[in-house]
Every structure is written in structure tokens, then in C-alpha cells.
Amino acid sequence: MKRMPLSREISGGIRPCKAKDESVRGAQSAPLPVFPLVYFCRSPDARDMPAAPEADPRFNEFIILQAQNAGLFLGQIPNPHSGEKQINLRAATSVIDSLEMLASKTRGNLTSSEQKLLTTALDNLRPLFQTAQASTDH
After folding, report:
1. Is 110 exposed, middle or buried (0-12, 13-18, 19+ CB in 10 A)?
2. Residue 94: burial class (beta carbons within 10 Å; 0-12, 13-18, 19+)
3. For residue 93, what are the CA distances in angstroms to 11, 20, 69?
4. pTM for the whole thing?
5. Of 91, 116, 118, 89, residue with least CA distance to 103
6. What mean pLDDT, rounded, does the chain reach?
7. How many angstroms separate the CA atoms of 122 and 115, rounded?
8. What are the residue ranges spanned by the domains of the chain?
9. Per-residue model confidence as pLDDT tens digits over 28-84
């Protein structure tokens, strides 16, 4: 993954453009350390920044891993240690809630493929959860 320089990572292409040293004096007129004051201005290359978010393969891998964990907890995937399908609604709820929170917090910041993957995962997990919940109630 290509890493952008720090000056381009600041929101909206804003970067430090100059610094001034100014001394600050306290109420007792004792000299205090000199701190550089940094002013921000719009970077001339801000127009070169991508308007749409860039895909990150780690995000897709994370979503798939979480969906697999939820599938394991919902009895859709056999436990790798025992080979048996087990239902753990508490763990499944935690994973699904985390994916829903992630969807909420990343709204508008995902690529179309990332958004589709996250939405599809949640759309597939919700009915599986309801089925697993109904089967444990009996």
C-alpha cells in the first residue's frame, strides 16, 4: 500500500506552511520556553488527492474473517478443534454488532466494493442469527 507523506494525510490537503517562534511570558514575567507556532494552509497539490476512497485489501480480509467467525458461532462452520457445529449466540451477537458498528462508522468512507462486501455479510448473517436463535429456543 502506497503511503502518502504526512502533509497530504492532513484532512483536506491542509499542510504546515510556515512556523514562527514566539516567546510567551507568564504572569510573573518569568521567561518560558519558546514554542514554534505552526500555521496551516491549503496544499497546492490538494487537487491531486483522490476524491473517492482507495480500496484497502486488509479491510476486505477483516470483514471476511469476521463473517467466518460469525458463521462459526452460528453453527454454519464446524469447530476446527472438535469438528462439530456449535451455536454460541452471545459471541455471534458480538461479531454482528461489531460489523454493524463498523458499517455505521465508515458510512461514506468505503469504496463501492467494500460497502457491498460489508452489506452482503450483514445481510447474510442476520437471517442466520434468527434461525440459530429460533433453534435454541426449542
Report:
1. buried
2. middle
3. 35, 53, 11
4. 0.61
5. 118
6. 78
7. 11
8. 6-48, 57-137
9. 555 555 555 555 555 555 555 566 678 889 999 999 999 999 999 999 999 889 999
